[in-house]
Design brief:
By secondary structure, the protein is α/β, with parallel strands linked by helices. The chain has a domain of 148 residues: Glutaconate Coenzyme A-transferase (3-Layer(aba) Sandwich). The chain is built from six helices and eleven strands. A hairpin with a 2-residue loop joins strand 6 and strand 7.
């Protein structure tokens, strides 16, 4: 079995350059590749196109890359938690492609499966469909959406083994699994890295064939976007 383990985030991100296209997993701030994002900030790479459901918040997640003006274009579904994102978009500093959430997930999955494009009803008759091929199937109109092309996919899992097999937890499964294998190189950071054979095969969500590099992350903050509480009775 091929050993995909690398010793550090520095080794995991070898080959990252300016003007690349990255996929970054997570849902809100749940399951985001915190270590990879922090190192991208440290590397100072610029002109990036980032494909991610969210754009982080002002001082965390992808918001850190936006603060440093490292992102040229965001391809996202929900971006309502980031004031700096809004400022850059409205000022024309940041190119933005907003995509229906299911379409975003499906374009990732299509890239993972080697499917060049898919038809979806989402967005037909709106700005989303402008300039795109449309087609009727059984009386219903669909929009042709192309699979994403990315240089790196950065994902975060709960557990993984040295062969790259991954287990996700909770809402971290929303986009991370679809991004595995959907780019030229998939880098997985995990909270717990174990030896091959230690994971129950019945519990594995993504097999190692979809992962090229894996490392154990450190110091996960796991922030909450909007903490809502109520007084105790």
């Amino acid at each position: 079995m091929i050993n995909k383990k690398v010793a550090s985030v520095e080794e995991a991100l070898k080959g990252v350059k300016d003007n690349m296209t990255f996929m970054l997993g997570g849902f809100g701030l749940s399951g985001i590749p915190e270590n990879a994002i922090a190192h991208l900030v440290k590397l100072g790479v610029k002109g990036l196109t980032c494909i991610s459901n969210n754009a982080g918040v002002d001082d965390f997640g992808l918001g850190l890359l936006l603060q440093k003006k490292q992102v040229k274009k965001m391809v996202s579904s929900y971006v309502g938690e980031n004031d700096e994102f809004e400022r850059q978009m409205l000022s024309g500093e940041l190119e933005v492609e907003l995509i229906p959430q299911g379409t975003l997930a499906e374009r990732c999955r299509a890239a993972q499966a080697g499917i060049p494009a898919v038809f979806t009803p989402a967005g037909y008759g709106t700005e989303v469909a402008e300039g795109k091929e449309t087609r009727e199937f059984k009386g219903k109109m669909y929009v042709l959406e192309h699979a994403f092309k990315a240089d790196f996919a950065f994902v975060k899992a709960w557990k993984g083994d040295e062969a790259g097999n991954l287990i996700f937890k909770g809402t971290a499964r929303n986009f991370n699994p679809n991004m595995c294998g959907a780019a030229t190189i998939t880098v997985a950071e995990v909270e717990e890295l174990v030896a091959p054979g230690e994971l129950d095969p019945n519990h594995i969500h993504i097999p190692g064939i979809f992962v090229q590099r894996i490392f154990q992350g450190k110091k996960y903050e796991k922030r909450i976007e909007q903490r809502t509480t109520r007084p105790r009775e």
